[in-house]
Inverse folding.
């Protein structure tokens, strides 16, 4: 058989590399944090057990929690035949089981994914998204969400946040933690607790930036996935533009309510002035569109 | 999709696997006798249309090959673009063997031209109406028995799958029995 020609989309080595560096930095940071805690003889096993239980429950119950707090309603293939038909074909193309679909009855156009594994995944779309997007753009958004499922993004971010949660816990529960450390107070006293608190603060701050950086790279990856699955990078680009335009029309009250769910959304609902890219979970619209345009150009080569 | 692909968020559509398709040729007799259905003379490749100019040239090649082979391969092909942005290349012919060959030849050409991951599925129509779907991602077959208003006859699908299991690769995970609604044939 003749040698197969390479697929039209190629690889984004830069993106993989940046993701790798971010994850490495995060791992190094966490390792250093554990070493500091170890050196200062913190009751580490107990702490890790508490956080592990927290993380575990978050990991397992986040699905139902998200569904509960967003008041999204899961629909059956009979209730939304067209939506399922589209998702089913994309799933077959991406080789993942067909996820459940839920609809959230808000007019703000958006979509997000929940669920810890491809088998448990749910894609939630808002009524606004269904009403305002043409079919092709809707498909591009669904393909973006399916790529999140395929890439296990919920699991990756949960895992990446594990030690950040420990650090945040120490910083926020300073007094409780002080008491806990008191019990096995050995050679060093109050100074050690102060040091742990400072170390935790530093770890918390740095990991915050790193995790958000990672999250942005995952978004780029999902954008790529959407372009690859639909074969049309331009569909997602125009969908993002439309969502952005319609988002700004929504009154501010709605926006602030929505801000809690940002990490899951295809497009974050934040006011323009607070959109500092380094601290945001999503890359800016211009950057995302530039990446998609680059893919479109590569395709024509 | 390996662990590292997930870790780095690399989307890789699994390469379309065309090689298991011929299992259908050998199983055709069993389908006729054990399920008392006959091949309805129609089959189709379903593929994702890609937005570039190289693809159009390829399309012409496919047509040409089919016309050239037309004398010893009595199969006709036509294109239908559906509402969802997929293209159906529908093959028609009396002899299932010829249809399978023509379909495989076309899929292979698409694959060699770099569109292997655009191949979604191949669909074969049987009479009384039901379909056998070959999924290029997983190199396996599964039955599809559509009913009115996007419902499926799951009981019959399971029966068909159970009957055909010894004769051809059947997709084991029923969650991967993706529906393909409203085939244009």
């Amino acid at each position: 058989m003749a040698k197969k020609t390479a697929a039209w989309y190629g690889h984004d080595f830069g993106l993989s590399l940046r993701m790798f560096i971010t994850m490495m930095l995060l791992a190094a940071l966490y390792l250093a944090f554990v070493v500091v805690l170890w050196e200062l003889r913190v009751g580490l096993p107990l702490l890790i057990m508490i956080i592990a239980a927290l993380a575990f429950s978050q990991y397992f119950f986040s699905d139902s929690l998200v569904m509960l707090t967003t008041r999204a309603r899961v629909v059956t293939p009979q209730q939304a035949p067209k939506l399922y038909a589209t998702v089913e074909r994309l799933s077959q193309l991406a080789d993942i089981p067909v996820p459940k679909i839920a609809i959230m009855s808000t007019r703000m156009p958006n979509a997000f994914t929940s669920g810890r594994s491809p088998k448990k995944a749910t894609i939630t779309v808002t009524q606004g998204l269904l009403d305002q997007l043409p079919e092709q753009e809707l498909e591009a958004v669904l393909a973006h969400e399916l790529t999140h499922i395929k890439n296990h993004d919920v699991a990756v971010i949960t895992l990446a946040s594990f030690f950040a949660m420990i650090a945040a816990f120490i910083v926020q529960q300073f007094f409780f933690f002080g008491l806990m450390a008191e019990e096995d107070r050995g050679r060093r006293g109050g100074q050690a607790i102060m040091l742990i608190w400072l170390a935790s603060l530093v770890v918390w701050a740095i990991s915050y930036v790193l995790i958000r950086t990672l999250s942005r790279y995952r978004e780029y990856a999902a954008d790529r996935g959407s372009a690859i699955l639909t074969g049309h990078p331009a569909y997602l680009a125009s969908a993002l533009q439309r969502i952005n335009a319609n988002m700004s029309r929504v009154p501010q009250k709605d926006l602030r309510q929505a801000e809690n769910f940002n990490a899951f959304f295809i497009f974050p609902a934040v006011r323009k002035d607070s959109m500092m890219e380094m601290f945001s979970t999503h890359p800016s619209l211009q950057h995302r569109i530039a990446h998609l345009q680059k893919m479109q150009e590569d395709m024509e080569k | 999709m390996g662990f590292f692909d997930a870790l780095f968020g690399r989307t890789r559509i699994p390469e379309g696997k065309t090689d298991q398709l011929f299992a259908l040729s050998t199983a055709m007799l069993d389908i006729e006798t054990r399920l008392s259905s006959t091949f309805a003379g129609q089959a189709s490749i379903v593929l994702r249309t890609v937005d570039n100019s190289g693809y159009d040239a390829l399309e012409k090649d496919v047509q040409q090959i089919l016309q050239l082979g037309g004398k010893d391969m009595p199969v006709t092909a036509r294109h239908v673009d559906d509402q969802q942005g997929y293209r159906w290349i529908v093959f028609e012919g009396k002899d299932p063997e010829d249809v399978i060959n023509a379909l495989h030849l076309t899929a292979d050409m698409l694959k060699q031209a770099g569109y292997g991951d655009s191949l979604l599925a191949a669909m074969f129509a049987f009479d009384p109406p039901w379909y056998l779907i070959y999924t290029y991602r997983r190199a396996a077959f599964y039955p599809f028995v559509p009913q009115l208003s996007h419902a499926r006859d799951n009981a019959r699908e399971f029966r068909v799958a159970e009957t055909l299991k010894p004769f051809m690769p059947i997709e084991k995970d029923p969650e991967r029995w993706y529906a393909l609604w409203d085939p244009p044939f």
